[in-house]
Each structure stands twice: as structure tokens, then as C-alpha cells.
Specification:
The complex is a heterodimer of chains A (233) and B (439). By secondary structure, chain A is an alpha/beta fold. Chain A is built from 8 helices and 10 strands. In chain A, the strands form 2 sheets. In chain A, strands 6-7-8-3-9-10 form a 6-stranded mixed sheet, sandwiched between helices. Chain A has a 4-stranded antiparallel sheet with strand order 2-1-4-5, covered by helices on one side. Chain B is built from 16 helices and 10 strands. In chain B, strand 2 and strand 3 form a beta hairpin. Chain B is elongated, with a radius of gyration of 30 Å. At the A-B interface, helix 1, helix 2 and helix 3 of A face helix 1, helix 12, helix 13 and helix 16 of B.
Chain lengths: 233, 439
Amino acid sequence: MLVMKDVYKIYRTDTVETHALRGLSLTVEEGEFLSVTGPSGSGKTTFLNIAGLLEELTSGTYELDGRDISSLNDRERSRVRNEKIGFIFQSFNLIPELNVFDNVDVPLRYRGFDRAERHRRITECLERVGLASRTKHFPAQLSGGQQQRVAIARALAGEPRFLLADEPTGNLDTNMADSVLDLLAEINASGTTIIMVTHELTLADRARRNIFVRDGELHDGPPELHFATAASA
Amino acid sequence: MLRYYLKLGFLSIRANPALSLLMVAAIAVGIGACMTMVTVRHVMADNPIAHKNDRLFHVQVDNWNPNNPYREPNEPPEQVTYLDATRLLEAGRAHRQVISFKSDRVVQPDDDEILPFQEEVRATSADFFAMFDVPFKYGSGWDAAADRAEERVTVLSAAMNDRLYGGEDSTGRMLMMNNEPYRVAGVLDDWRPTPKFFDLNNNPYEDPEDIYTPFSVAVTGEWGSSGNNSCWKSPEEAGYASYLASECIWIQMWVELPTQADKEAYEQFLADYVTEQKELGRFPRPLNNRLSTPEEWMINQEVVDDMVSVLLALSALFLLVCLLNTIGLLLAKVIRRRNDISLRRALGASKAELFRQYIVEAGMIGGAGGLAGIGMTWLGLRGIENVFSEYDFIEHLVTMDWQMVGLAVLLAIVSSLGAALYPTWRACRVSPATTLRIQ
């Protein structure tokens, strides 16, 4: 379970102070499929980065599976990130000089699994995303949809409890986007909690719960409602 | 994980060949320049008898001018007189003792096809070979009895034996020098101590002599010294006998004293000897005896030219400049790889793991730079050899041993790791959130 209470994130420079999150409180239950929508610059990616332990919060509390994250050092945060969280990015973020197999292998290396265990997990995940025959291919040899599937396989290989997806279909055409969303839904059905940031309402509708972020503040409910409110305001 | 880091390092180098090549080249050129001078200095400053450094001592007694020291500040003469050399030798107070000087003879080969030639000869006492661990190929040196009996025996170097006898066992054969026959007692194996620690007077890097004869035979034959001769006052009369009785210094003396107690006893013996000589009207200067280990003696004689140290410092500065360039190139590489760094952070790599990954990669680049640096060093040494080709001994100063090869690689790796610290630290501080967001 993910619990954030009264989370603030403030970016400071010498002259400017930017409040990216303002007292955000949120609880995400085990197995949820949550979409996060909001206008550009609203703070939804900042929220995802804090949820994924890529950034530290300025104030407030954040508990992941009952553990207070804010008190962890870098090594412990990396460990939590590696064991509990999987990332899917809009631009796939595959490592170009590694082939498909080795890309999926990256998080497992930091986990300390032996060779046989890594091989088993990588093979299973690539089969799950339908790319078992592409293990020796390099990212440049794959289509966008295939690259995103490799990224999903990489995120799944560590069997994370939470999958954080930042605009996972932003660089894909409609067919490929549908296929990726189907895959995410299937993953969610198998018990993995998914938090997906998107600005597309049709995609947000695929989630079982929607939250809307505006000016760093959280609003529950269908995104259409909030977008309409934002537009009329 | 080391194998994984090595694999990543290899892939990274392959992915950025131009940048990697520039880094390897920068390190190689710096290492080449630095190691060229380190090698020259290493050979010049080497102690070829280091394993006996704590038991061999060069002997100095101060018989010099009462008004001026032999060399400032208050250095005693570098050699000893015939009077002192023979008296100290005869006293036999050390475990082993050697007196020697360099002379020259005309060698008359048996083989009519080889013309007679002039050759430098070392006249020395019997302990020379045992004291300095001189290796023998055939036979042996002579003994103290041969010294006393003024036996015409000789020991040849391997090169001289090759020249005169085609390399065969020549022990027992007679060698003519200045129309006098000498029985070959032994033939040395390859032996070329560099520097020539037992006689640093002329050129510390010249080859040792190829022919050795008993000191007593040389004196009886009234051989002159072809090494340094210094006198603070002229011999009282002309002639060899007067020269032997003079205060002229021309003989090198070494003693072997196995223990500290032996050394202290010998120091006392020298003090007593000089005091006794003072009563006889010699040694007008204050007591100033010295016993120097080979290492101390080489430092005292400044066998390493100051210019070499200056050049070494300059080459070290050049290496530093090359490393600064490497730091810049590594920083450029880190900037190019921010996405990779951020991604690995997001996937669970800690800062420490990333640090290790990049340090291993830097070590690989350093290793490659070191290997290329060995080639650069070889080129540098060949350059020195060509520039100073008129000096016979130069080839012995520009040789790399395995110790130097290992040092070159080690220096390159350590240097590149040092150069990598700051860029790697920067790599670990890359904010994954910021980098991944702007993709």
C-alpha cells in the first residue's frame, strides 16, 4: 500500500521558489490501477517521481508498504526502488548498446540474482510481452511498440509491487497504444498495482480509479469533470 | 558484479570509440613521457648490490690538505692512498676487504688473426669476486695466497673470453699482456652492475673492466692508474716508489662487515689507525672517516644527474596536464551518458554501484592507456638512445625491465582512476528525475 500525507515538493533556485506539490495526500491500495491526469506543469510527473523514489519530498510523509521512505539513505532507497517499483517511460529509455535480453537484465543485476534466476525471469517476461524471439535484437532494430514492450518486460522482471508508468503510450500510434494498455491491464489483473500518468482522457478511462492534479493539488474523480472545470475557470 | 562492470565498460568504450581513443591517447602520451624519465632515473639510481647493501661499505679516511677539505662541505677524499689501502688490507680487520684501481694493458692474443689491443684492466685483491657476488662461468678468482705471492693470474669477462677464445673454457690457458704471461683462473658470467658502484670515479655507467689481475702484480709491475688520481701535495721524489709513498689518492677500498658490531669495531679500528698515523705526522685534518653503504655512496657521488630529476619533474607535470585533459573527456562522456546513469538509478542502482561501474570503466581505459604508454615509453627511450648515440653506455640506461613495464601499467591505472574520481562523482550526482523527464 502507498500512503502519502500532506506532501509538499518545492523547487528552489536563488531567486525562484516553485511549489510543484501542495499538501498532496493519497492512499493507493494493493492491486489498484490508478490514472493521474492533469494539465501540463500541474505536478503529476513530480508526484510520480516522488512515488518512485527518484526525488525526495520537501515535507510530509510517504509510506510504502508500511515503511517510512523519507528516512532511508541512498542505498536503502535504491534497494526499495529495485525490489518494489517498476518504471515505464514515455520514451522507453532502453540502453541502445544492450540487446533486448541485456536491457531486461539491468534491474536484476542490481538485485543480486544468480545467472540461472536472471535467465528464468528474463525469458518469462519476454514471453509475457511477446518478444521471446527478439532477445538478441538491439533497441534500434525494434518498432516503438516493441521497445515499449521490452521496457515493460524490464519493469516486470523484478516482480515489483508497483508499476509506475509516465505517459507510457505517448510515443506510440493508436494500435500500439491499445496493445500496451491491454498489457498493462493484464499485469494489473495479476495483482500488480499500477499508477499511470497520462494527459489523454481515453487512456485514463482504462484505469479503475482516476485522480486529477492541478497546481500541485489532488482532486479525486473522473478526469473529464476536472478538465471541464479547469476549462470553464 | 565485476564481470558485469567490465562488460559495461567494454560496451561503453565501443559505443564511444573516438572519445575513448582520445582518453587512451592522452594517458598513453603522459605515461610515455613520464615513464621514459622514470626508467632512465630508475636505471641510473639502481643499486645493483642492494641485497648486500647493509654489509658492504666504501672506506674513506681524510688525509687531505689541512687548509681545504677535499670537497665542500668537509668531504673526505673519495679514494685512499696506496699506503692506507695496503695497511688497512693487511690488517685484515673486516670479514672481506677489497682494494682496486683501474689500469690498462696491451693484450696479445694467441690467435694471429687478432691484432694486439689496449684494454682496461682492474687490479684488485682476491676478495673482489666474493664480496661483490661476481658470477663465474668457468673457474674462479684467485685467493689471498696468490695476492701475496704476486701470481700472474687473471680473470676474464665473458665478452673478453668470447673475443679471445671463442667462448670456450679458457681456464688454465696463458694470456699475454705487455709481453707477460697470465694464467686464466676464471671466466665471468654476464655481469654488468649499473651503476658501476665499486668505482664511480670516472663514468658510473661504463662497462666493468673485461680483465682482472691481482693488485700486488700491478704494483710490482708499476702499473699506472687510468682512473682518477688526486694529490694535495706532490710526491717527494719522482718515480713509482715515491708515488706509492705519497698522499695521492687513487685506490678504491671496500670492506664487508656483516653485523652492526662488526661495523662499529671497524669504525674504531679506522679511528685508531688514523690517530696512529697522525702521531707519525700524517692526516693533518680532524678525524673524518666514513663508511658508506653502496646506496649512500651512490647518493654521495650524485650518480643521478640533477638534470634527470628536473626532467622527471617536468614529465610528471606533463602527465598531470594529460590527466586534466582526461578529466575533461571523462566529464564529456558523463554528460553524454546522463540518460544511462539516470535510468540505472531508476532501476535500482545505488550511487555506490554506479561509482564502481564508472571506476571500473576508467580503470579499463587506464589499463589500455598504460599498455599504449609502454609503447610510447619504448619510443621515448629509443629517442634518447638516438640523441645520445655517441655515448657507449647510453644503451644500458634506456632499457625497460618488467618492473618498469608493470609500473607503467600501474601508474596509468592509478592515474586514470584518480582522473575519474571527479567525473564519476558528478555521474553519481545526476538527478534521475530531471534527466528522465526531459527525454
